[in-house]
């Protein structure tokens, strides 16, 4: 039976490679559509949790995995020799940056080589990881064709960028429109047909390169606009003008303006990283990306700006940052999730420590830190209560979780440095609250 017929009658087996923030909800979407899903991951702890029906991504809900397992539609393995079993392999592996802000495609390359070892006629392979244009064609295609099979004839290859936004309640994987582009016409068409079975709206574009570039454009658009508003925040705070009130005022215009909000820096799996994939590619072909690189400089400077505001606020109260007890509220990169990838709280805490501060953190969603590629804070979340907060010389708001009682924090803290505008709604003259 051809792949097209298997997709049409629901008998195709879908393989998801990488069972993290992108792969796991994608697996659920295909299970919900009636397809059998075989997940792959290198982490044996994830495989163990999934087999037991445990969901390690709390923001997706406790029943997400158990529902798939109980329906008999899902299994997970760390045996990559089984990659020949699925009819389609959807690759959702990390694409981080190296220490010099260069693209690290090692996960994509290693996964592609693993796929190539078991690649068989009739299989569809799509990459979902964010990357620079032509990665699918120049990095994946030669490796997959090295065994003699030809793309568009024996197997099919496409690109379909993930658009996950952890914690978002108004959209899910199945309701976010999906872009799909193929290496060739038949690959694009088959990928479109497959995704359309699990996603409400799938948009087929002319090539993998268009889909790759569109994903970068989406994230660069946000990065540049956030940098602009962060730069304006620094300027307006120096002029004693409330940036938050300025944004609210500008947002009354019904056209030509979209509100973006400042913060202590960028976090998450996309916006702090993806623009540098394009700047690296631009340098390879000898073209500048001044606008994008400037935005990166501004956004990466924001944790230091928050630290500078903290140092100044302490100094104005007769305290040195060295030896001060500082509590950072929020380790996750955005509210109400446990996702700490690229969170600006990490450089913020590190900078304060380097200045001699005694730094602790509280995050109701992140009980302890763990070693990551660039950070190892070795900290556990401490209580942030009406009894404990007065014991800190300063409280720094890095993430505005809904669980926080901002009125209590403003009332009980000696000093609050607010990098999120979280205490704007707290009434009264709060001389102990400093915007950052």
SSE topology:
Layout: H1 3-9, E1 13-17, H2 23-32, E2 36-40, H3 44-51, H4 63-70, E3 74-77, E4 88-91, H5 106-118, E5 124-127, H6 135-145, E6 156-159, E7 178-182, H7 185-195, E8 202-204, H8 208-238, H9 243-250, H10 274-284, H11 290-316, E9 325-329, H12 345-354, E10 358-362, E11 394-397, H13 406-412, E12 416-418, E13 433-435
Parallel strand pairs: 1-2, 1-4, 2-3, 4-5, 5-6, 7-8, 9-10, 9-11, 11-12, 12-13
Antiparallel strand pairs: 6-7
What does this 3D model show about the protein?
The chain folds into two domains: 3-208, 3-Layer(aba) Sandwich (Rossmann fold); 264-435, Rossmann fold. It is 37% helix and 12% strand. The chain is built from 13 helices and 13 strands. Strands 3-2-1-4-5-6-7-8 form an eight-stranded mixed sheet, with helices on both faces. Strands 10-9-11-12-13 form a five-stranded parallel sheet, with helices on one face. α8 crosses α10 and α11 (290-316) packs across α12. It starts with a helix and ends with a strand. The model has no long low-confidence stretch (mean pLDDT 93).
């Amino acid at each position: 039976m051809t792949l097209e017929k298997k997709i049409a009658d629901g008998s195709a087996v879908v393989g998801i490679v990488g069972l993290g923030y992108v792969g796991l909800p994608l697996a659920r979407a295909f299970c919900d559509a009636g397809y059998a899903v075989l997940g792959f991951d290198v982490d044996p702890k994830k495989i163990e949790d999934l087999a037991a029906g445990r969901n390690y991504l709390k923001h997706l809900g406790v029943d997400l995995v158990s529902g798939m397992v109980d329906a008999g539609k899902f299994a997970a393995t760390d045996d990559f020799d089984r990659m020949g079993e699925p009819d389609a392999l959807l690759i959702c592996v990390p694409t981080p940056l190296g220490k010099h802000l260069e693209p690290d495609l090692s996960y994509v390359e290693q996964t592609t080589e693993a796929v190539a070892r078991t690649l068989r006629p009739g299989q569809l392979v799509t990459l979902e990881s964010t990357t620079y244009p032509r990665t699918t064609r120049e990095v994946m295609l030669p490796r997959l064709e090295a065994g003699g099979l030809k793309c568009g004839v024996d197997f099919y290859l496409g690109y379909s960028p993930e658009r996950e936004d952890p914690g978002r309640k108004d959209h899910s994987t199945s309701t976010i429109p999906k872009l799909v582009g193929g290496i060739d016409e038949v690959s694009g068409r088959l990928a479109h047909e497959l995704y359309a079975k699990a996603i409400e709206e799938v948009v087929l574009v002319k090539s993998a390169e268009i889909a790759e570039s569109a994903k970068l454009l989406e994230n660069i658009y946000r990065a540049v606009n956030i940098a602009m508003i962060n730069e304006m925040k620094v300027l307006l705070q120096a002029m004693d003008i409330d940036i938050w009130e300025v944004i609210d005022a500008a947002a009354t215009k019904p056209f030509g303006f979209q509100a973006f909000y400042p913060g202590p820096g960028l976090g998450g799996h996309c916006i702090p990283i993806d623009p540098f994939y394009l700047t690296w590619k631009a340098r390879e072909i000898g073209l500048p990306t001044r606008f994008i690189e400037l935005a990166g400089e501004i956004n990466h400077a924001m944790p230091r700006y928050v630290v500078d505001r903290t140092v100044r606020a302490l100094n104005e109260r007769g305290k040195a940052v060295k030896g001060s007890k500082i509590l950072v509220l929020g380790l996750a990169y955005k509210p109400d999730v446990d996702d700490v990838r690229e969170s600006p709280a990490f450089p913020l805490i590190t900078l304060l420590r380097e200045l001699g501060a005694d730094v602790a953190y509280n995050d109701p969603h992140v009980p302890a830190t763990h070693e990551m590629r660039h950070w190892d804070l070795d900290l556990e979340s401490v209580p942030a209560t009406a009894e404990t907060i007065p014991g800190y010389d300063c409280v720094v708001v890095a993430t505005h979780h809904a669980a926080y009682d901002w009125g209590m924090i403003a009332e009980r803290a000696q000093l609050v440095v607010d990098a999120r505008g979280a205490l704007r709604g707290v009434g009264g003259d709060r001389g102990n609250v400093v915007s950052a």
